[in-house]
Write a structure and sequence with these properties.
This protein is α/β, with parallel strands linked by helices. It folds into 2 domains: 20-297, HUPs (Rossmann fold), CATH 3.40.50; 307-405, Anticodon-binding domain of a subclass of class I aminoacyl-tRNA synthetases (Four Helix Bundle (Hemerythrin (Met), subunit A)), CATH 1.20.120.640. The chain has helices spanning 53-71, 87-96, 100-117, 129-145, 174-183, 224-235, 250-265, 297-302, 307-315, 327-344, 353-364, 369-385, 393-405; strands spanning 20-23, 28-31, 37-42, 75-82, 125-128, 149-152, 155-158, 200-204, 212-213, 219-222, 240-246, 271-277, 280-282, 285-286, 323-324. A hairpin with a 4-residue loop joins strand 1 (20-23) and strand 2 (28-31). The two termini are 31 Å apart.
Length: 409
Amino acid sequence: MYAWPASEVPALPGQGRDLRIHDTATEGLVTLDPGPVARIYVCGITPYDATHMGHAATYNAFDLVQRVWLDTKRQVHYVQNVTDVDDPLLERAQRDDIDWVALAEKETALFREDMTALRMLPPRHYIGAVEAIPGIVPLVERLRDAGAAYELDGDIYFSVESDPNFGKVSNLDAAAMRLLSAERGGDPERPGKKNPLDPMLWMAARPGEPSWDGGSLGQGRPGWHIECVAIALDHLGMTFDVQGGGSDLAFPHHEMGASHAQVLIGEFPMAKAYVHAGMVGLHGEKMSKSKGNLVFVSQLRRDGVDPAAIRLALLAHHYRADWEWTDQVLQDAVDRLGRWRAAVSRPDGPDAEALVEEIREALANDLDAPAALAAVDRWVTRQDTEGGTDIGAPGVVSRAVDALLGVAL
């Protein structure tokens, strides 16, 4: 599977700072110190509907991570998956009387268009669950043969008790885990499981559903968590720098994936930091496909909204915060974009070197994009009220905003 084209990232003078970011597992800030190549895995979409603002906010957060690392003169090895076979996709395809493969391809193509328009830097490897199946099967077999997985009516389940570090990503108690498992794709009430929290690794073929040859596992398809584990281990190896996604992935997805990998490899942890973005709401509820309360990036673009304004609307909120999408949020971003573009269109302006360092410091401090935006606002206000004589300043501001915030002025 291919990703989307990369927008150019301007080079800035000087060098960025190492990133301090909130780690869900330790419940505090950690300073990331990757080697020359920073490694990040971000969980991708299940392509049964278009990209909504919740998706966009999540991928914007991890785009900022990449930009901070690039500014430190590191390379970035970014991997993202596409869950192109899963129950929600199959259910939507059946509802709309469309082939599930065609639906996945259509929505993945639209996602690529949205990411391109928003200037999100693409992953080096963009991998679909279906194409990962040949690498998933042997991992499930290894877990089964090691006694960390078991068969139940043809399905293969992972035993969470096989990992002594299970629970150290989300830090939830058993009751909270069981509740979230039921809400987020698990089956804690299924009779015969060793532990209600045990997740499925391999689902035996069901009538009328797609399936693949699983070797000794039989015909079937992979579970959700093992998909990401196989892709991450194949392309990044163990103990990579950041595992990312929305806050609703901390449990069960990232918790289970970490346990799968830790039992398979015999090392801890799977990732050095687990980083989670907040939820975006609409009309008082989390924006989600299941609720149908969605604002789509593609629809905003069709309505003529500048993608740079959409990106500024996302950047106006701290990535870990839960926030509400409103018409005013978008209007504020449109107005801000207009002010910024007018300010950098002038032939000269106030010195901008200090501004570049302010943006760098804000982003290095747990991706504090609102603080970075406020710093640019202050420079724009000085440009409007005082002016300046530095003929290079508007260009410096424009390049810094592009390189570090992903907004083209």
